[in-house]
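To: structure desk
From: M.T.
Subject: fold request, one chain
Message: Could you run this one when you get a chance? Sequence is below, nothing fancy, just the single chain.
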Amino acid sequence: MTAQDIRNAYLKFFEERGHQVIPRALLVPQNDPTTLFTGSGMQPLIPYLLGEPHPKGTRLVDSQTCLRAQDIEEVGDNRHTTFFEMLGNWSLGDYFKKEQLSWFFEFLTDTVGLDPNRLYVTTFIGDEANGIPRDDESADIWEELFASKGIDANTVEIGSEDDGYKKGMQDGRIFYYDASKNWWCRAGKIDQMPAGEPGGPDSEVFYEFEHIEHDTKWGELCHPNCDCGRFMEIGNSVFMEYIKTKNGFDKLPKQNVDFGGGLERIAAASLNSSDVFRISLLGPIIEALQKLSGKDYESNTNAMRVIADHLRAATFLAVDGVVPSNKEQGYVMRRLVRRAIRFAFDLGIEQNFLEHIVPVIADLYKDDFPEVAENRDKVIAVLMREEKVFRQTLRAGVKELSKLSEGGLTGAEVFKLYDTYGFPVELSVEEAYKQDITVSLSWREEFDTLMKEQRERSQTAAKGTFKGGLGGQTMQHKKYHTATHLMYQALRDVLGSHVIQRGSNITEERLRFDFSHPEKVNPEQLQEVEEIVNKQISKDLKVSYEEFPTRVAVDEKGALGQFGDRYGDTVKVYKMIADNEDQPFSFEICGGPHVEHTLQLFEDNKKFKIIKEEASSAGIRRIKAVLI
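Reply: Done. Structure tokens follow.
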């Protein structure tokens, strides 16, 4: 099966079992200040896993595109990618372990056709200190499932990952690991969970590739969670059944299932190839690179893998409305594109290669994701423009390099050229030799040291930025979220109906709102927007929502929709209306959270105030506002 076949078969499989197919969320989360990107399949579903009812019911399934920018330096091996698809199914207080594990096993073995003899599973060993028993129920279910295929599945107690390297496989098929491997919670570690936080044990499925010997550099003995490449995790079922209390853990009144399986990894397993870059969603990109460069993949695996991954990620970012810039998501997008161009130099591709590669990527997804087909030409134009800009940057880097002719080229200067100008490292050295500039013998060591220091700074800064999860649930978030609705309508009243939301970011300190408008908003217009918002707040508008079929909400009711959101069949529409008025001031599709009455925004004698208006990108303006 191709990856495309597997994706469609998965959605159909769970749809036949009562699940509603929901559309993918954007790569850029709306109104979630805790993360730059959607980094997991469950991230957009967190409010519903915490108890909020989903418009489509209690059984859901999707294929969610994800991006993890923190993995950018790992790309180049056989399995890491910054962009990936996560197949997901959820039970919101409906079915539980028996159905979930049985269905996934059936899908892998009977639908995809994986050899059950190559599958190994893990489950939770328990946590005596927190009074949580080991998950024997999942182990028993797995034992029955393997027996149905004629496999005698032995259970083995491992413990930690380090224990695994000491104990090894022990002829096991079902492995018990501790909370560091088989427990899910947003805090990451069970001992760091705050009161009120949900969590639970999980059960992972691993595929064993043939003909891969254990590499002892990872540890003495191999086990399913080993990094040697013999095993690859292809799916994880989280059983969210506990909630942390002041006194320990209690059972949740409703138990949820949160499953995530890597599409690319399942596709690689179906090929029995440990190289995910050979699957049908990446292989054609590699083939195009080989044709364009005249070089083969086997001799240039690192460069071709980086290019294929980075341009695939950049393509979907462009589809979701991101443009290269020096800020936030745009900065990551720019870095991905420029890294791809840098590695293209290794292949001898020195110009205009995006116009050949990006259409290949777009065509791989256009049939299954309509938004890719709709934005194909725009995406190609955006990325080609960035390549043109970077070529000019390269020329600036060459000019800067020529100034170093007297002192020679050191690692510090190579780092400056790379970090400031985006100038490829290898190209710096090559150009120096061309210009007869002396190159320090220790340049690489010095450069690597500076890069390591920068990476450590970035990782430290990213701990809070990339962790993902639920954000914007405090009262301050609710106030700013409500104010955003009011300001959106006020902007349309003042500037015109061409104003469309292009993104937002809300913290406890302020709101930030991007919208379409061709020119700077003048001070008089900003003051008028402020006055409208404050007037509406003072009316103490009642805030409530109703659920409508999407077409009814948009076409018949006239509800505003946030830019880029892709809705299912049913949506929530929030209404803000005064008691003595017939028409709501704001009527907008949204997922919350909000206050119940707008006068709550004026608590502690606060008022709505716009503090900054600026350009975000071409044709897009950005406003920052506060309650002070």
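Reply (cont.): Confidence is low (pLDDT under 50) at residues 461-471. Let me know if you need anything else for the meeting.
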